[in-house]
Amino acid sequence: MSNPVFSNSAVFGEPRRGAGGTATAPAGQAGRFGAQAADAASLQNMYNAPSATPVDTKRLTYTDVIMKTAGLLSLLVVVAAVSWSLTETIPSLWIIGMVVGLVLGLVNAFKKNPSPLLITLYTVAQGLFLGGISRYYESWNDGVVLQAVLATLSVFAVALALFSSGKVRVTPKFTRFLLIGMIGYLVFSLVNVVLVWTGVLEGWGMRGGTLGIIVGLFAVVLASMSLIVDFDSIKRGVEQGVPAKFAWSAAFGLLVTLIWLYLEILRLLAIFRE
């Protein structure tokens, strides 16, 4: 796994296996069959009843994930638009959103059970952050934000299409490459930030010029691969019949990856223009 929202969740992970390689049953399930005999009338009623759907059993469905994700994205865009308009009058607003969003992101990522309230607050904080930083990028490069939004949506659509077609599968080799790549990228980014903040490097630091373009493209590839892993985690959760409340976790995980992808594309386009 790459996205901590999914990798730290037991419900979206691989099913546990017993010593013989077979899936183990949940605790308390063994020995329940046959403990209570049903009469003929009850059996006949059960046979004639329509099959229960995931909605009836309150299990996770793709519709749940789509609706929750669409709702969070809509809220994100609205808050970002407000933050965009307030950037000149309240310059520090996007910085507050960045800090609060980081804290809430970590809290939500490591919670065993999703909190709709905390996830919503995270979305609001990220909207404040994205609106402000996008306004600054736009002031330097006219039209770059629209290009970044369209590029992000395009990458998302391509990643979803590739995953749905089965042409790209999440294999151990796939996840291992993604994990190594993300760790390397994180270390590189931290070193670059320290060098820029301490005045050793100026401007974009190591993120500028040809090296910056190469690193930016690599980051976009990593974010795209992370999206595919997210899709695979959601698919596994639906197939395993996890509770419907985890649609919030799935939507939050997708939102985290999409925000990362958008920021990388926005930075990459700005470097290209320079």
TrEMBL record:
The keyword Iron is annotated on this UniProt entry: no
Keywords assigned: Membrane, Transmembrane, Transmembrane helix
Secretion signal, residue range per the UniProt entry: none
InterPro entries per the UniProt record, alphabetical: BaxI_1-like (IPR010539)
Biased composition (Polar residues): 1-10
Record keyword Endoplasmic reticulum present: no
Region (Disordered): 1-27
Transmembrane regions listed in the UniProt entry: 65-86, 92-110, 117-137, 143-165, 177-197, 209-229, 250-272
The protein, known as: YccA/Bax inhibitor family protein
